[in-house]
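Instructor's aside before we start: the two examples that follow are unrelated to each other. I chose them only because their records fit on one page, so don't look for a connection. First example below.
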Amino acid sequence: MRKTSPFEAARTRLRGILGLSALAVQLAMMSGFATVALAQTPSPRPREPTPPASQTEPWLQGLPARRGLEPRPSGNESGPININTATLKELTRLKDIGRARANDIIKGRPYSNKEDLVERDILPRYVYDEIKNSIITGQE
């Protein structure tokens, strides 16, 4: 029996450890490759056929309404507006009356006659002259 030096004994143990770790790495890699090889990509779903453009006719469908793009009516087509009870939206339908003037009209209520709008400096004379035939106070 040959006597081995401590250096050779350590070297032999190291080779054994390295051999086992190399084997473990190889097994891990093989199992990883096996997992990748076994994984399958899903089959593509069949596409639903789309009708040809001649059958869809998008130009025959109505366009969706867009708020705020309608032409503003020049006057009140549904009759005179009562300035003592009208809403902000109803007042802004009048010619030259925006949100600010409509709010001023609402804040100045009640009115005994239409001329109060000018007498109280709520509206300038030229705006009043434009809308005087479209408004009432309900007391007239």
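Example two begins here.
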Amino acid sequence: MNNESIFDQSSESAVLSCFLHAQLDEQREMLSTLREDHFHLYEHKLIFQSFLRVVGKSIHADYISIKSDLDANGTLEDAGGDKTLAEIAAYCQSSHSWRRYFPQLEEARYRRSLEMLAGDMVHKARDRELKLEELKNWSETSVMRADYLIDDSEKLSIKTVVERALDNIESTMRGEPKIGVRTGLVPVDDLLMFGMRGGDMIVLAARPAVGKTSAAMQIAEHVALDAQKRVLIFSLEMTSVSLMERMIRSRAKVRAADILAQSISKYQRDSLASAYAEVRDSQILCDDTSGKSIGYIKAVARRAHQKEPLDLIIIDYLQLLRGDSKRSKDNRVNEVEEISGGIKELAKTLRVPVLVLAQLNRDPEKRGGRPSLSDLKGSGAIEQDADMVMILHCDEEDAKNHTQHPTVEFIVAKHREGPTGVAPMSFNKAITRFEISSNNGRES
């Protein structure tokens, strides 16, 4: 095995030399791309740290100012002294060629990170206390992080971010806002002005039997069948077959009771056949493995997204997931925090909206009235991590009377980029489908 360190000394020297010849504005731009770990040699790291300090004071970093700064910090000799600094200053005659040398620095940095990861993998592989699933989840997550180490200058550049932000603002001003994924539930979409955008964690919470799974499947149906997009569903409670059976019936608007009684008409048969064909030919993926961890969810989603980009991920539901770390085993609050943070990380990393279902605690039933964000079961981290929180609340009179068409309020309790409010809808229990309610006014 070759034990030589991975670095390119000439490229490191060239980039540092180009920096010394650049003007202050250009130096600031270079610092938005360069990082300390692009440099492997210790003396080069010290010189780069000096660049950060000097430019941070709005002082032009040249031979004199850098030498003075290193001397003041007591690191001039460690950085190679006058001789090394003079050699670096003379290495290039201008700043223009730094981008020609930068790819070599980036490649060396990435290779060093992989070398460190490989060492960690050997250590993990020899740890007999780690279960196979934990090891697989760790390796998947670690490789995913390594993927994002290479050339993240575009992500870090404020210039690129501001340009994208301005483009979004101008598009909205032209009446062409950049909309994410729509739910297909019209009153709800009216409140979620920009839809479910890539990177968003959207929580759909309710007490049992209010209709959160039905709502999620209706959203999945709209996104996959009407919008022709790719949807990945993690069902930790129901089987994939049960979910798809429900989706077909709901799409066809045929009651389960009619099928069971074998009393369906030809029109209903045709509707079922049509719905079946639509679901069969859709881009819905479904994983119904029970008792899995957040690491498993992230690994499966990443593989599916690499094969073909996903447009929406649905998780049913958060409290059935497990954490991966030893800390999460200490108590349930820590575990829920890890799961919630992992879901948000997944959304941001893949830049895909993640709709996660969650349970509410019993407090709303005890006190009466509408539930609130504080009623999310398990941890305050769910409320903190989420970009949007929708809470389903069944009309109390309808709940008492067990009506087949209860009014269910979609309470948008948190919305980072838009208004909060209430969107009432009628829940047709017979076909597990939400429909526009006659009481469709919104409250803010």
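The longest helix spans residues 98-125.
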